[in-house]
Amino acid sequence: MPVPTFLKKFGILERCGIGSSEKPAVKEKKEKEPAGRAQWSSQTEFLLTCIGYSVGLGNVWRFPYLCYKNGGGAFLLPYMLMMVVIGFPLLFMEYSFGQYFGVGSLTIYKKVCPLFKGVGISYCVINAFVCIYYNVIIALSLYYLFGSFTSLMPWTHCNNAWNTEMCLDAHGMSKVVQDLIGINNTSNSTVEGTTTTIQTLVDVNGIGSSYNISGDYNMTSLNMTSALSLNKSARTSPTEEYWKYKLLNVNETIHGIDNIGNVRWHVCLCLLLAWILVVLIVCKGIKSSGKVVYFTATFPYLMLTVLVVRGVTLEGATDGILYFVTPVWSKLASPEVWFAAATQLFYATNIAWGGMLTMASYNTFHHNCFRDAIIINLVSFFTSLYAGFAVFSVIGYMAHENGQAVEDVIKSGPGLAFIVYPEALGLMPLAPMWSALFFFMLFLLGIGSQMVGFETVITGLCDEFPIFRKRRLLTSIAVATLLFLFGIPCVTQGGMYVLQLMDWYAAGFCVLVVAVCECLIINWFYGNEKFAGNIKEMLGDKPGWWWRICWKVISPVVIVAILIFSFVKYSGAKYGEYIYPGWADGIGWCMGLASIVPIGVVALYTLLTADAPTLKEKYILVTTPDKSIFENRDKASDNGSEDSEQLSPNSPELKQTPTTGDSMLMDDSIAVQEKLINKTNSTKHFDDIDDAKV
């Protein structure tokens, strides 16, 4: 079968091992691990780990809502375009960068471009912030999972101590409706011989203006149908009351972040359990987590399939799905739609978080990371679509049962996962089983992302400080304990206000800034052509022109445009109808800046303290790769392909090649380094002479 020419030019099929009968230039062989550092036991472990990392909670509660809100099926067009210009290129770049040098996020920039070693710190800070509140969501999933193991789940009915008079469950009438029916059957205007009860019911439920009730409160015109209709618009669901009054125990004093109340200890215990599970999974690094992903990365798809099959068979499911996929092409004229597509891509693929780079650093030298970059983007995209069918089919069913429109039911974020969807599942036969499946799926999706984020922090510490590698378990416990303590404010009565603030700022604009820094460091400071040559060493062929121009120009320009748009359209944090005060937004900005300030501060400090006489020589010195970074890679390359003719960065043949624009800085840097070394040796020689004279 002939291969399309444009695919050959981009080098997609060949690098994936498709469309060519020729043997690949470099064969994947069992390679010797760098001393003291583990490698994946198989390619499958790496792929499943990355799938578990990229396919997380956002695929279930964020993408479907964004798709519905931003043009339905039309939203897929800008999303796929962003995937082509940002998703594929940058993920391939991160995989290649981490795999070639084989070190963690803290060490890699320190060795490749010391001026920007602060980027590695940014990775760790971002992941630490996200781990704090992400594990809270996992804890909530565990809490609901445990609550599902009952014949009558507490959030499906209104007969609990915490329920209010306005609660109305789906399979019966609330206390309010029962009272209204009692009034309807009462002659004149009395209930139990008084008018006080009627007055109270009218005032509390706000039905006076709706029904034009006369002064004598003659309720005979209020029939059962109108009472039910009124209650459907004014009621609160048992799932919402369970969330507010049982889980969080919100009261009249808890109405914002200025008063977060007391710790909810039952949720705090679930948070502790979640952290214990994370530590157990990553305690031995990829040797332990690599085995866990066979379950955590695959089982959610089985449960998602069960939910999809069940959902599409429900009455009203078609209406919900149509809301999800029906294209509204006029939405594409809105810049907000394109901005939403780009930002969702960063959430879906975890680009510029450091996790993908860290996981790739455990690959063998000749692993086909290009193929994996394509697979991960596609899997994340189609999983989001698949989850959308599971979500909107059930939402359509719920809207049908309650006589509401889909747009009045759908929510995003925790509101979808812990209020709307549980209520919809409660309407089904065998509701506890469906609820347990759903929350177990959320738990697995969350833990798959959480363990990679936590591993990124631990790997960075272990690579930078070898003493931590020898005591990895203690290091993991210490870091997890610290993050657990920081997460306690998120499990208070007003903890959701804290969680939303962290989610709003901790991994927002700072990730975009780090992504731009990645592109600049790798393609402008280190060198685009040099990096392409490194990839040739690993994969046997240089990446095509499309990838190189995306890394160097297109991707960073698009990301900068997204950044500018986000600042122009900036609005403070919100949680539902609640708008955060200015001081809370200030704290949020501090969290975001804490992730990127290290880049500038460390760069300035490194430049000023560089051991060189002039500013130019200082600059050249701190932008020159440390030769030690290539040592393990050279050994891996030699062990992986003894008969390969690929050249290492330090080989004599490569040094004799003509100097290109990308390598001129490297040549100047080497000259400066040799000059400084000679100067140091000369100084030492005269010092020895002076010592001898003394």
Describe the 3D structure.
- The protein has helices at residues 5-10, 12-15, 43-54, 57-61, 63-69, 76-101, 105-112, 118-147, 175-184, 196-205, 208-211, 224-234, 238-247, 265-282, 286-296, 299-312, 317-325, 335-349, 355-360, 369-402, 414-426, 431-464, 466-470, 472-487, 495-505, 509-539, 545-568, 582-608, 615-622, 631-640, 652-655, 661-693, and strands at 574-575, 578-579.
- The chain has a two-stranded antiparallel ribbon with strand order 1-2.
- The protein has 32 helices and two strands.
- Helix 16 packs antiparallel against helix 22 (431-464) and helix 20 (369-402) crosses helix 21 (414-426).
- It has three domains: 5-153 and 249-603, Amino acid/polyamine transporter I (Up-down Bundle); 175-234, no CATH class; 619-693, no CATH class.
- It holds the Pfam family SNF.
- Disulfide bonds join 158-167.
- Residues 631-664 are annotated as: Disordered.
- Keywords: Disulfide bond, Glycoprotein, Membrane, Metal-binding, Sodium, Symport, Transmembrane, Transmembrane helix, Transport.
Instruction: Characterize the overall form.
Output: globular
β-strand number: 2
In helices, the fraction of residues equals 55-70%
Low-confidence segments, given as residue ranges, are 1-10, 17-34, 173-177, 186-231, 640-667, 679-694
Please state the average pLDDT score: 80
